[in-house]
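Two folds, back to back.
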Amino acid sequence: MNFWKNLILGAVICGLIQLLPAGSAFAVGSGGFENATFSASSLAQSGATVAQADEAAAISYNPAGLAYLPGIKGQSSAAFLSVFTHREAPNNDSQWSSGTLNLVPTAHLSMNPGSLLGDRVSLGIGSDSPFGLSNKWNSNQSHVHYAGWRNYLKMYTIKPVASIKLHEKLSVGGGPIYYRIFDFGGIQAYPNAAVFGPGTPDGQVRLNLAGNTWGWHFGALAKPHEKHQFGFYFRSPATVRTRGQIKVERSTASGNFETGGKAKIDLPLNFTFGYAFKPTSKWTVETDLGYTRWAAHKRLFIDADPVSPADDAILSAIGKADKDYSDSWGLHFGGNYKVNTKLTLRAGSVFYWAAVPKDHYIPAVPDSNSLGASLGGSYMFTKNFGLELAYFSRFWFRRQIDNTISEALGTTVDGRYSSIMQSFMLTFKYGFDDLSVPKPKGDEKGLRKPAA
């Protein structure tokens, strides 16, 4: 197959996987609502891949690695994430969140035109969902009645990148990031009693906002020795200004109504350092240290368009919340073993420090210190096509919460919380190394023979 046919094939496969409906769940990131799910091989090593960056999905965690990938490389992935949270209330009542199963598709495509650009430049484009939120509780449970029993943040990115090989042992890469949040919001009780007094029946409010913005990212990859590699990745902060609808049912003042709303969502910067050691041609082990500046997420103010004095007072009370997140660190360990030219096995582990403080903790983002472990493998059916699988499980340690959120309305979020997440990811890989254009028929020097 020639260069352009291979390129079109890769683009079509990437496009088809991105047509899947996207759902997001906080799960694999540094805390808060980050979701660092990019490929099965990365997930199988618990994210310890910044210093290897040897796949097209490196577009999302270190685009510098693309400079060393020959020809055309593509990956289309689907991750399935399930999250459960347990709360032990102060009265020893035990409560569980409802189960959620979320599909997160990703796609990445890289192209190295070889001698056309001096064997030093590669281009790529990818799409993923680096932040997300999805959980659901029983609406009758008091700790979520006013804090939100249904919460969601669904988004995707588009990442065009370029990677340049400065030296055979050093490359850099990066590009812009387009963020699109297409559904952010939740469902909670509408506290009519806040204005009309105790005993007034509650209504319900649903929030659906959307918005987009731009950021950028950069990576570097050094290979000073055949056994040692070093990687670095940086993602810029970004602020998404969202706008949409607030739908209220059973308002005592206005009945059912809709109004506009807007909110700013701050997405944090991240940088990660990685070191990979290759003791033999079959083994690779890596450790990464990542930092995420969650302190940028200071507050979430949802400003509603005016409706009536009574409704405006309620919407203002439930739409203003301090967050004051803390910066978070992640320590990743992972490795892989090449059994043969077709089969590679992977495993990893990660520890994350919590970003959400106790004073502003709500069940929508039940964050705490957490430990994750993973395993997986890949099998190349042919030189050009292969399949990767990964399983990742993360445990949030039990955390005692005692704050004043929703207490003014007669409920409390206090209790002991713990969460568990399980993720299964499937990646379809394809690649074509030989992109040479056939020479015209002719003599040994490549000249066309004259007609007889």
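---
second:
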Amino acid sequence: MATTADFRNGLIIEFNGDLYSIVEFQHVKPGKGPAFVRTRLRNLKTGKILPNTFTAGVKINVQRVERRPMQYLYNDGQNYFFMNAETFEQLEIEKDLINAPQFLKEGNIAEIMYHTETDTVLTCELPATVTLEVTYTEPGEKGNTATNAMKDATLETNAVIKVPLFINIGDKIKVDTRDGSYSERVRE
């Protein structure tokens, strides 16, 4: 068993019957009273952040997780299918376990986090940015670039995001998968 002295960002612990990832922690030694550790924990199932305070030295149950890169194949509406590139083993993942399913394109690599004791999928994370092609957008007006004006653009995955006016149909752009925002135009 580990203690609060073993805390580090990204550590997975079992807390209140669920698995949590430590987002941040701070050891506090007040002038009066016992030391404690103030933490922010992310629930791996729901993604919600939970603030919590542990007494210093309390025992915690550390959980082992494994991250595996897998290639996205296709989806059937509710479930998404991935393949391990080394073993060619296929895996079916529910849509709510994926952080940004609207930006998944066939052939993309995603990182899948497994709980090693139960061999269950905890989360599926796309890279921070993905490159996608614009399939439809209204033409931009000349001279209307003095302000940071944005317009809607439909991507090849059918996701709709806001892009600058100079983006046209057929352009490849980088999209930030964490918040779904336009990042930059990709030159080839």
